[in-house]
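Sharing a chain and its predicted structure for anyone who wants a worked example. Both blocks are below, sequence first, tokens second.
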Amino acid sequence: MSDNTIHLTASQITNAEELLASKDNEISSLRQQLIDGESSFNALAEKHNKLTAALSEIDVELAQLKLSLDTESRHRLACQRSIALQANYGASK
């Protein structure tokens, strides 16, 4: 077996250590950015869920109001027909 030794200067080792420290800092920064992004996402997802629930409640209320309006319109129409029939009946006497 051949003995392949690698000779490094102190400067090369220092540069490698500085590069490693720089990459460690970069990884830490990226990790924090990821954590911050996840936190923002979770906050927005929670807000979305609240807005979706509120919209659902409004949809239910709107459906109830439409039903009430429809019922009121039918009742008013029936009253108008009844009045018209009574007026026609009274006029024919």
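Comments welcome. The chain is about 90% helix and 0% strand.
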